[in-house]
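Invent a record, attention on tokens:
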Amino acid sequence: MVIQSNMSPKGIVDIWKETEVVFNKYNVPITTQSLEILVKNELLHSLLKELNSVVGSSTVTCIEGG
């Protein structure tokens, strides 16, 4: 699974506890709102890249729809 912009910080942290430090670094609250709503567009790409790096996930490790 790849962490995506339509996911919420709360949902992500519930699955991957280690991502909480990344959210703290970017000052993103752990809420049920999606990342695309909470994070300014210019920071969203960097945040997603770092979150996926922390959990060891990338588009290379995933298959479409799964």
Notes: Residues 4 and 36 are 9 Å apart (CA to CA).
